[in-house]
Amino acid sequence: MALFSRRRIPAADRSRLDLHPGDTILVSTELADGRRAVASRRALHLLGPDGPVVRHPWSDVDHGSLDAATRTMTLRWVSGASEQLTFAGVPGSYAFSQTFRERVQQSVVHAASVTLPGDHRARVVLRRDEDGRMFTQVLGDASIDLSDPAVAAIVDAAEDEVRDAVGLPR
User: Fold this and answer.
1) Which has the closest alpha carbon to 125: 116, 114, 117?
2) d(C-alpha 34, C-alpha 52), whole Å
3) Domain CATH number, residue 92
4) Which of 62, 123, 137, 166 has its Cα between 20 and 30 A from that of 78?
5) Which domain of life is it from (predicted)?
6) What is the pTM for the complete model shown?
7) pLDDT digits over 34-66, tens only?
8) Do 144 and 95 have their domain in common?
9) What is the per-residue pLDDT across 120-144, written as a single tens digit (0 to 9) for each?
10) Which of 19, 103, 110, 124 is nearest to 61 (CA)?
């Protein structure tokens, strides 16, 4: 069995995927820990050998970076948590990371960086969900207090800015 495939995955794994209508597999590769990573048009799917499939819409991903030397991709979720995927083979790591990057970028419509009190930084991002609806996210570290009126005013202004930039109502 191949470690990497543009679209083909074993029938048993394919049957476990929760592919929504209109979704399609773009790339699949085996991970060093025995799991399989599948990038579909709408989501990232992580399949354990026998366990459940974990499905993440692309709008749940903040970013990822690949360490080519170790074939390890570090994912950062919008929640602030992170996860590492170590690819079983080099071709799979490159093809998967390219598709990963394209799908995450496709979900981002517009973004604005802001400086908040206490010299904190955050990003306000207008994104597409997997059905194409747009929504905003505030991405920053856990120390940002969105209940602080000064912080809320800056974030609200940035949200208005990203919505205005693409012609959405406030």
Assistant:
1) 114
2) 13
3) 2.30.29.200
4) 166
5) Bacteria
6) 0.87
7) 999 999 999 999 999 877 899 999 999 999 999
8) no
9) 999 999 999 999 999 999 998 888 8
10) 103
Sheet with strand 82-86: strands edge to edge: 61-67, 72-77, 82-86
Residues 79, 116: one domain? no
- 72 vs 130: CA distance, rounded Å: 26
CA distance 169 to 87: 43
The residue from 90, 106, 122 where one domain ends is 106
Residue 95 pLDDT grade (very low, low, confident, very high; cuts 50, 70, 90): confident
Q: What angle do CA 78, 84, 88 make, to 5 degrees?
A: 140
Q: How far apart are CA 110 and CA 67, in angstroms?
A: 27
DSSP 19: P
What does the CA dihedral 98, 99, 101, 107 come to, rounded to 10 degrees? 160
In a domain, 38, yes or no: yes
**Average pLDDT in the chain:** 90
Give the range of the structural domain holding residue 67, as residue numbers without chain letter.
4-106
100 and 36 share a domain?
A: yes
The type of residue at 60 is D
Question: Could you give phi then psi for residue 130, rounded to 5 degrees?
Answer: -70, -15
> Which amino acid makes up residue 109?
V
Mark whether 45 and 73 lie in a shared domain: yes
Does 123 lie in the same domain as 94? no
